[in-house]
């Protein structure tokens, strides 16, 4: 694979958008207008767009028909025309469409634009597009359909593998929407397409192009499988479509952390880089253009700080003037462009352009990895996305960083482990559970929250006995007297565990005194237990991360010992912080995930000072602290050096 590809080089970041021609949308290859496309690409390049994701629509490039008799099929053709005896013809490809794509790629190169090419574009914006010969087949599992797809991919990749505009090969647009199949069948389809690409071009990365993946063993499209087979994973984090992400306004913390949290979950569990490949607010019924610009500014800052490699808006131009499907069907496919239909730019485009210039202006070519303190282990039986999402936001509010893994993967090395919202009896293999307890004995800290799950062994390491288990009749209020700030919260935990400490310290209780939050020593380490599934509850409750609440203080209490070697720490829960080692210096990225201006102190470790401000206002000194001023939905990026 080529070196220095920004999609696979750690710490690099690109900005761009998904592209359909402004005059035609999905019919652009049939209704080819070179002058319009050239003008589109000029506008995008002039505005600072670096990367386009583009789509050779499957039935336009492989327009197969199947002719036959009443007794069965006889021959694949292009309409009535026999397939020519050429490599192109034997692959069923359209010479006209291929020449148009070549012209398009040349135009992109002339404007300095790089292309991520979605090869099997059979699903687009809510409509299935397949060659006439394959209509009615499950194109992910039918052997005839897969045969022709591999021929398509091999020929197309061979034809354009030397083109300088091509940055990467994408399997296709959300191909997991093209039909139902089992996990094994999906693995076989992905493997066939990936191998077809790599047979012709091993110099460019293969991008997944999928969305809505999960890590559990019953997930048909599994993060780990896509990570095994492809080089770059992708998220399409639209708040409107993703569970738990459309609860709050798009310019507030929950929604603004969506793309980062989901992409980090994919990258950590899939063990491959992850790209925010599609994102948008879906038009004027979700947010104003100004709010959409605020949203994308923070999404880019956050994705960059967490090594998400890039962000591509959906999509380049308004398509509200088109009458064909899918634009006639779905209102949210019409007003998504960076430009209005009259060609004037939207505020979102200005933010993307400015962020691209910011990245280019930096004195470093890549942002070093962020410091992480904890590993969050997702497990079978739970809603993994709900738990991952909330754990990520709570850690951000508390001021530390987590990475993810799945319970059946080898344990990552960390001083602090989170096992949130355990549910069911197959949470974690016995061998992995014993290994985790041994890590604690050796000095690690473990936190477990309960959602009707079963762990064994439990009583001895956790330092309590479960006297009884019953269903909660109503919500209960918990007081955390043993946590700094003494936060309280109300939980709707479905099950109540009546606990009797044997050696555990009680840090939080229900109103009747029943222990809810405990801490126990285990060897050289510590085990915390919370008998309420707060992560799941917060994710499912609108406004839970913006309204006055203090659940994040529980996370901060547990993580505080591991944050001691950070050179900068913050207290404000709406400010996120990442820290990146750059030789003897540190890059610190502070992001205001709130739609309100924030002025807040940030504590620097003794002997550290600001040596540069890369973004935002330079903070003012205030004794041992610095005072940071954040506009709404904005950031401060500092270079810190030791004195």
Provide the gyration radius in Å.
26 Å
Count of discrete alpha- or pi-helical segments spanning 4 or more residues = 16
* Lateral strand order in the biggest sheet: 15-14-16-17-24-23-22-19-20
Number of domains: 3
Q: What is the CATH class name of the largest domain?
A: Alpha Beta
β-strand number: 32
Helix percentage: 25-40%
CATH architecture classification of the largest domain? Alpha-Beta Barrel
Strand content: 25-35%
Q: Return the CATH topology of the largest domain.
A: TIM Barrel
Largest sheet: 9 strands, mixed
Structural class by sheet pairing and helices: alpha/beta
pLDDT averaged residue by residue: 95
The shape, in one word, is globular
Task: Provide the low-confidence segments as ranges.
Answer: none
- CATH superfamily grouping of the largest domain: Glycosidases
**Terminal residue distance:** 42 Å
Structure description:
With 643 residues, the chain is an alpha/beta fold. It has 3 domains: 14-361, Alpha-Beta Barrel (TIM Barrel), CATH 3.20.20.80; 374-563, Rossmann fold (3-Layer(aba) Sandwich), CATH 3.40.50; 568-642, Golgi alpha-mannosidase II (Immunoglobulin-like). It is built from 16 helices and 32 strands. The strands form 7 sheets. It has a 9-stranded mixed β-sheet with strand order 15-14-16-17-24-23-22-19-20. The longest helix is centred in the first third of the chain and has 18 residues, at 143-160.
């Amino acid at each position: 694979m080529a070196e220095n590809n920004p999609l696979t080089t750690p710490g690099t970041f690109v900005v761009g958008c998904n592209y359909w021609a402004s005059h035609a949308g999905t019919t652009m290859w049939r209704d080819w207008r070179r002058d319009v496309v050239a003008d589109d690409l000029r506008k995008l390049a002039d505005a600072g767009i670096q990367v386009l994701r583009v789509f050779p629509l499957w039935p336009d490039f492989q327009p197969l028909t199947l002719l036959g008799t009443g007794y069965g099929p006889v021959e694949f053709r292009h309409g009535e025309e026999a397939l020519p005896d050429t490599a192109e013809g034997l692959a069923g490809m359209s010479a006209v469409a291929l020449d148009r794509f070549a012209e398009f790629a040349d135009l992109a190169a002339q404007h300095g634009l790089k292309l991520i090419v979605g090869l099997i574009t059979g699903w687009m914006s809510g409509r299935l597009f397949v060659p006439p010969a394959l209509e009615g087949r499950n194109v992910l599992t039918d052997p005839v359909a897969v045969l022709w797809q591999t021929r398509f991919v091999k020929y197309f990749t061979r034809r354009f593998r030397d083109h300088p505009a091509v940055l990467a090969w994408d399997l296709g647009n959300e191909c997991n929407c093209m039909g139902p199949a089992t996990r094994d069948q999906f693995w076989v389809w992905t493997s066939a397409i990936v191998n077809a690409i790599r047979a012709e071009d091993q110099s460019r990365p293969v991008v997944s192009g999928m969305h809505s993946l999960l890590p559990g063993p019953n997930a048909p499209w599994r993060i780990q499988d896509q990570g095994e087979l492809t080089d770059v994973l992708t998220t399409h984090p639209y708040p409107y479509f993703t569970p738990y992400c459309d609860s709050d306004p798009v310019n507030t913390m929950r929604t603004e952390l969506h793309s980062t949290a989901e992409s980090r979950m994919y990258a950590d569990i899939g063990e491959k880089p992850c790209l925010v490949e599609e994102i948008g607010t879906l038009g004027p019924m979700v947010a104003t253009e100004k709010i959409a610009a605020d949203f994308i500014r923070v999404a880019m800052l956050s994705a960059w700080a967490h090594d998400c490699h890039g962000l591509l808006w959906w999509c380049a131009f308004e398509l509200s003037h088109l009458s064909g499907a899918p634009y006639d069907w779905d209102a949210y496919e019409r007003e998504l462009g960076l430009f209005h239909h009259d060609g004037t730019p939207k505020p979102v485009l200005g933010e993307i352009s400015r962020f691209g210039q910011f990245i280019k202006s930096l004195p470093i070519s890549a942002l070093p990895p962020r410091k992480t303190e904890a590993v969050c282990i997702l497990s079978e039986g739970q809603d993994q996305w709900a738990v991952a999402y909330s754990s990520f936001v709570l850690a951000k509010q508390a001021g530390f960083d987590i990475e993810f893994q799945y319970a059946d993967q080898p344990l990552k090395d960390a001083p602090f482990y989170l096992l949130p919202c355990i549910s069911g009896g197959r949470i974690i293999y016995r061998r992995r559970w014993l290994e985790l307890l041994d890590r604690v004995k050796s000095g690690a800290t473990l936190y477990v929250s309960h959602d009707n799950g079963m762990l064994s062994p439990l009583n001895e390491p956790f330092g309590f006995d479960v006297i009884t288990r019953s269903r909660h009749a109503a919500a209960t209020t918990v007081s955390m007297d043993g946590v700094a700030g003494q936060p309280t919260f109300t939980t709707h935990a479905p099950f109540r565990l009546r606990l009797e400490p044997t050696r555990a310290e009680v840090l939080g209780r229900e109103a009747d005194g029943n222990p809810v939050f405990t801490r126990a020593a285990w060897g050289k380490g510590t085990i915390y237990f919370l008998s309420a599934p707060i992560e799941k509850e917060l994710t499912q409750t609108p406004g839970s991360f913006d309204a006055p609440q203090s659940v994040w203080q529980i996370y901060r209490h547990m993580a505080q010992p591991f944050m001691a070697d950070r050179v900068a720490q913050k207290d404000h829960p709406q400010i996120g912080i990442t820290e990146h080692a750059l030789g003897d210096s540190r890059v610190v990225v502070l992001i205001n995930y709130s739609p309100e201006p924030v002025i807040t102190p940030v504590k620097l470790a003794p002997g550290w000072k600001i040596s540069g401000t890369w973004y935002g206002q330079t903070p003012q000194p205030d004794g041992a602290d610095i005072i940071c001023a954040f506009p709404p939905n904005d950031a401060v990026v500092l270079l810190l050096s030791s004195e």
